[in-house]
Amino acid sequence: MDDLDDLYFIYSHPDLSKYLSNEQPLRLDQTRAAINSIIESWQQHKFGVWAVVYKKHRKLIGHCGLKFLENTPEVQIGYLLLKDYWRRGFGTEAAAAVLKYGFDVVKLERIVAIAKPENIASRRVMEKIGMKYEKDAYYYDNDVVYYSLSRQAQQLEALQLKDLGKYEELTLPIPQPLAPVLGGI
Predict the structure, then answer these.
(1) Would the pTM of this model clear 0.85, i.e. be above it?
(2) Angstrom distance (rounded) from CA 22 to CA 17
(3) Which helix H or strand E contains 145, and what residues bound it?
(4) What is the mean pLDDT of the chain?
(5) Domain 4-165's class?
(6) What is the mean pLDDT of residues 72-100?
(7) How far, in Å, CA of 149 to CA of 74, rounded?
(8) How confident is the model over 60-69, as pLDDT tens digits?
(9) What distance in Å separates the CA atoms of residue 60 and residue 13, rounded to the nearest whole number?
(10) What percent of the residues of the chain are helix, what percent strand, and what percent coil, each to the nearest 5?
(11) What are the extents of the domains in the chain?
Protein backbone atom coordinates (compact mmCIF):
# COMPACT_ATOMS: atom_id res chain seq x y z
CA MET A 1 0.00 0.00 0.00
CA ASP A 2 2.98 2.27 -0.58
CA ASP A 3 1.04 4.32 -3.12
CA LEU A 4 -2.17 4.70 -1.08
CA ASP A 5 -1.78 8.43 -0.44
CA ASP A 6 -0.77 9.22 -4.03
CA LEU A 7 -3.58 7.12 -5.47
CA TYR A 8 -6.05 8.64 -3.03
CA PHE A 9 -5.01 12.10 -4.26
CA ILE A 10 -5.75 10.99 -7.84
CA TYR A 11 -9.05 9.22 -7.06
CA SER A 12 -10.31 12.10 -4.93
CA HIS A 13 -9.31 14.85 -7.35
CA PRO A 14 -12.38 16.86 -8.43
CA ASP A 15 -11.21 17.20 -12.06
CA LEU A 16 -11.11 13.41 -12.40
CA SER A 17 -14.17 12.31 -10.45
CA LYS A 18 -16.52 13.22 -13.30
CA TYR A 19 -14.87 10.40 -15.26
CA LEU A 20 -15.29 7.81 -12.50
CA SER A 21 -18.36 5.62 -12.81
CA ASN A 22 -20.09 7.07 -9.75
CA GLU A 23 -18.88 10.63 -10.48
CA GLN A 24 -17.85 11.01 -6.84
CA PRO A 25 -14.34 11.37 -5.46
CA LEU A 26 -13.26 8.19 -3.67
CA ARG A 27 -12.74 8.22 0.08
CA LEU A 28 -9.54 6.81 1.56
CA ASP A 29 -11.23 3.52 2.52
CA GLN A 30 -12.59 3.18 -1.04
CA THR A 31 -9.12 3.79 -2.44
CA ARG A 32 -7.71 1.10 -0.14
CA ALA A 33 -10.46 -1.29 -1.35
CA ALA A 34 -9.58 -0.43 -4.97
CA ILE A 35 -5.93 -1.31 -4.31
CA ASN A 36 -6.97 -4.61 -2.72
CA SER A 37 -9.10 -5.36 -5.78
CA ILE A 38 -6.14 -4.62 -8.05
CA ILE A 39 -3.92 -6.96 -6.03
CA GLU A 40 -6.55 -9.72 -6.23
CA SER A 41 -6.85 -9.28 -9.99
CA TRP A 42 -3.09 -9.71 -10.46
CA GLN A 43 -3.10 -12.79 -8.24
CA GLN A 44 -6.10 -14.43 -9.93
CA HIS A 45 -5.84 -13.38 -13.56
CA LYS A 46 -2.24 -12.25 -14.14
CA PHE A 47 -3.49 -8.87 -15.27
CA GLY A 48 -4.69 -5.73 -13.57
CA VAL A 49 -3.83 -2.07 -13.22
CA TRP A 50 -0.38 -0.52 -13.42
CA ALA A 51 0.77 2.63 -11.75
CA VAL A 52 1.63 5.25 -14.36
CA VAL A 53 4.76 7.06 -13.27
CA TYR A 54 6.24 10.14 -14.91
CA LYS A 55 9.92 9.27 -15.31
CA LYS A 56 11.23 12.81 -15.08
CA HIS A 57 9.91 13.30 -11.54
CA ARG A 58 9.32 9.63 -10.60
CA LYS A 59 5.81 10.71 -9.64
CA LEU A 60 2.65 8.61 -9.71
CA ILE A 61 0.39 10.44 -12.16
CA GLY A 62 -2.35 7.89 -12.73
CA HIS A 63 -3.13 4.32 -13.59
CA CYS A 64 -3.75 2.20 -16.66
CA GLY A 65 -4.62 -1.43 -16.95
CA LEU A 66 -6.96 -4.29 -17.63
CA LYS A 67 -9.98 -5.53 -15.71
CA PHE A 68 -13.19 -7.39 -16.40
CA LEU A 69 -16.01 -5.27 -17.77
CA GLU A 70 -18.94 -5.15 -15.37
CA ASN A 71 -20.99 -8.39 -15.39
CA THR A 72 -19.28 -9.77 -18.50
CA PRO A 73 -16.36 -12.08 -19.35
CA GLU A 74 -14.90 -9.29 -21.49
CA VAL A 75 -11.66 -7.57 -20.50
CA GLN A 76 -11.56 -3.80 -20.69
CA ILE A 77 -8.70 -1.36 -20.73
CA GLY A 78 -8.97 1.71 -18.55
CA TYR A 79 -6.80 4.69 -17.72
CA LEU A 80 -6.89 7.75 -15.53
CA LEU A 81 -4.27 10.52 -15.39
CA LEU A 82 -3.93 13.69 -13.37
CA LYS A 83 -5.10 16.70 -15.37
CA ASP A 84 -1.60 18.25 -15.47
CA TYR A 85 -0.54 15.31 -17.65
CA TRP A 86 -3.39 15.41 -20.16
CA ARG A 87 -2.77 16.26 -23.83
CA ARG A 88 0.84 15.08 -23.72
CA GLY A 89 0.43 11.61 -25.23
CA PHE A 90 0.86 9.83 -21.90
CA GLY A 91 -2.58 8.21 -21.92
CA THR A 92 -1.95 6.88 -25.40
CA GLU A 93 1.53 5.66 -24.49
CA ALA A 94 0.31 3.85 -21.38
CA ALA A 95 -2.76 2.39 -23.10
CA ALA A 96 -0.69 1.11 -26.03
CA ALA A 97 1.71 -0.64 -23.63
CA VAL A 98 -1.16 -2.23 -21.69
CA LEU A 99 -2.88 -3.30 -24.90
CA LYS A 100 0.33 -4.97 -26.07
CA TYR A 101 0.64 -6.76 -22.71
CA GLY A 102 -2.98 -7.96 -22.97
CA PHE A 103 -2.49 -9.43 -26.41
CA ASP A 104 1.14 -10.59 -26.25
CA VAL A 105 1.46 -11.81 -22.66
CA VAL A 106 -2.06 -12.61 -21.44
CA LYS A 107 -3.02 -13.81 -24.94
CA LEU A 108 -6.43 -12.14 -24.92
CA GLU A 109 -8.36 -12.43 -28.17
CA ARG A 110 -10.21 -9.14 -27.68
CA ILE A 111 -10.03 -6.07 -25.45
CA VAL A 112 -12.80 -3.52 -25.04
CA ALA A 113 -12.96 0.02 -23.70
CA ILE A 114 -15.77 2.27 -22.56
CA ALA A 115 -16.09 5.97 -21.87
CA LYS A 116 -18.79 8.46 -21.24
CA PRO A 117 -19.83 9.90 -24.63
CA GLU A 118 -18.70 13.41 -23.68
CA ASN A 119 -15.20 12.22 -22.74
CA ILE A 120 -13.69 13.09 -26.11
CA ALA A 121 -10.08 12.78 -24.89
CA SER A 122 -10.62 9.20 -23.74
CA ARG A 123 -12.33 8.32 -27.02
CA ARG A 124 -9.37 9.82 -28.86
CA VAL A 125 -6.97 7.58 -26.92
CA MET A 126 -9.07 4.53 -27.81
CA GLU A 127 -8.94 5.45 -31.47
CA LYS A 128 -5.19 6.18 -31.42
CA ILE A 129 -4.48 2.70 -30.06
CA GLY A 130 -6.54 1.18 -32.85
CA MET A 131 -9.85 0.53 -31.13
CA LYS A 132 -13.03 0.93 -33.14
CA TYR A 133 -16.39 2.24 -31.99
CA GLU A 134 -18.98 -0.54 -31.84
CA LYS A 135 -22.04 0.77 -30.04
CA ASP A 136 -23.61 2.85 -27.33
CA ALA A 137 -24.03 0.82 -24.16
CA TYR A 138 -24.81 1.01 -20.45
CA TYR A 139 -22.25 -0.07 -17.82
CA TYR A 140 -21.47 0.99 -14.26
CA ASP A 141 -24.78 2.89 -14.11
CA ASN A 142 -23.74 5.16 -17.00
CA ASP A 143 -24.45 5.59 -20.67
CA VAL A 144 -21.16 4.87 -22.44
CA VAL A 145 -19.62 4.42 -25.84
CA TYR A 146 -18.15 0.97 -26.39
CA TYR A 147 -14.98 0.36 -28.40
CA SER A 148 -13.09 -2.86 -29.08
CA LEU A 149 -10.02 -4.32 -30.71
CA SER A 150 -9.26 -7.92 -31.60
CA ARG A 151 -5.82 -9.46 -31.44
CA GLN A 152 -5.84 -9.83 -35.24
CA ALA A 153 -6.75 -6.19 -35.81
CA GLN A 154 -4.12 -5.13 -33.24
CA GLN A 155 -1.43 -6.91 -35.20
CA LEU A 156 -2.43 -4.92 -38.26
CA GLU A 157 -2.45 -1.69 -36.22
CA ALA A 158 0.99 -2.40 -34.69
CA LEU A 159 2.77 -0.61 -37.51
CA GLN A 160 0.84 2.59 -36.82
CA LEU A 161 1.71 2.43 -33.11
CA LYS A 162 5.46 2.02 -33.54
CA ASP A 163 6.03 5.77 -33.20
CA LEU A 164 4.60 5.80 -29.66
CA GLY A 165 7.99 4.79 -28.25
CA LYS A 166 9.24 8.30 -28.91
CA TYR A 167 7.56 9.56 -25.73
CA GLU A 168 9.44 7.31 -23.29
CA GLU A 169 8.56 9.58 -20.38
CA LEU A 170 6.49 7.05 -18.42
CA THR A 171 7.31 3.93 -16.49
CA LEU A 172 5.01 0.91 -16.52
CA PRO A 173 6.88 -1.66 -14.44
CA ILE A 174 6.74 -5.34 -15.32
CA PRO A 175 4.33 -6.99 -12.87
CA GLN A 176 5.66 -9.66 -10.54
CA PRO A 177 3.41 -12.41 -9.18
CA LEU A 178 1.89 -11.32 -5.87
CA ALA A 179 3.53 -7.89 -6.22
CA PRO A 180 1.15 -5.60 -8.06
CA VAL A 181 2.63 -2.65 -9.83
CA LEU A 182 1.03 -0.19 -7.45
CA GLY A 183 3.91 -0.98 -5.09
CA GLY A 184 7.05 1.12 -4.91
CA ILE A 185 8.43 1.87 -8.33
Answers:
(1) no
(2) 8
(3) strand 142-150
(4) 83
(5) alpha beta
(6) 93
(7) 12
(8) 899 999 999 9
(9) 14
(10) 40, 25, 35
(11) 4-165
